[in-house]
Amino acid sequence: MSYLHQTKGALPTYMDKKREYFDSIGDTWDGNVTAEDMERLTHIIDRIDIRPGATVCDLGCGTGVLFDLLRRRVGETGYVVGVDFAPRAAHRAARNFPFDNIAVVEANACRLPFRGGVFDLVISYSAFAHFSGKDEMIRQSHGVLNSGGRLVIIHLMGRTKLAEMHHRAGDAVARDDLPDRRELADMFGRARFSHCEVTDTTNLYLATGIKP
Ligand SMILES: C[S@@+](CC[C@H](N)C(=O)[O-])C[C@H]1O[C@@H](n2cnc3c(N)ncnc32)[C@H](O)[C@@H]1O
């Protein structure tokens, strides 16, 4: 396992407040994840069909909630790279998962410090709503994917319910919402993803796109 801190291209200052917020909840975040959440995530990830040897980037990985599901599927010949801009969450993720096929990078998901074409899958769970530059994150994901690679965005609740929850959570995330299906499909299109599919029901927001 390795831990890297992206030193180039520091975060814009308007992101400081959000980063501080996520850092402040980093130590207790794991307690919010229920067994039902993990069961639903397992089901979704099974359907993605991640092959042994695959390379996966988890954007807004937090404390590494997806890491175990992902690392078991990529096996010893693949790897999982988690990215999060909140140092406390990222350090915890690295501590929780001291495996050779996992690395954690402290960086902005909207400005990725990777070469082009290095991942088979970019996945983001429960984080996309918080990204300040959503178009940018989608474009950057396209850039780091291999041809045929997929971007998968997951929230285990629909956009209306999520917006209400963030509104109640306080200033730092009060305006963090999700684009509607049409807006998201347009963002995927602008970034040149194909086969874009968006589900937005009361209990699920799931979007996938393929890099041709
Ligand atoms: C609600 S938490 C979810 C964390 C994890 N995916 C999970 O489900 O447990 C959202 C995460 O996104 C991260 N985040 C928000 N904006 C980010 C950005 N621009 N770049 C990197 N990480 C970001 C936060 O630090 C936080 O850890």
The helix tally amounts to: 7
Q: How large, in whole angstroms, is the Cα Rg? A: 16 Å
Strand content: 15-25%
CATH class category? Alpha Beta
CATH structural architecture: 3-Layer(aba) Sandwich
Helix residue percentage: 25-40%
CATH superfamily caption: Vaccinia Virus protein VP39
SSE order: EHHEHEHEEHEHHEE
Coarse shape: globular
End-to-end C-alpha gap: 31 Å
The structural domain count equals: 1
Q: Which ligands, by name, code or SMILES, are bound? A: S-adenosylmethionine
Number of strands: 8
Structure notes:
The protein has seven helices and eight strands. With 212 residues, the chain is an alpha/beta fold. The chain has a single domain, classed as Vaccinia Virus protein VP39 (Rossmann fold, 3-Layer(aba) Sandwich). It has an eight-stranded mixed sheet, sandwiched between helices. The chain is globular, with a radius of gyration of 16 Å. S-adenosylmethionine binds next to strand 3.
Which SSEs are present, and which pair or pack?
Elements: E1 2-5, H1 16-25, H2 35-48, E2 55-59, H3 67-74, E3 79-84, H4 87-96, E4 102-106, E5 119-125, H5 134-144, E6 145-155, H6 159-169, H7 181-190, E7 194-200, E8 205-210
Parallel strand pairs: 1-4, 2-3, 2-5, 3-4, 5-6
Antiparallel strand pairs: 6-8, 7-8
The structure holds S-adenosylmethionine (SAM).
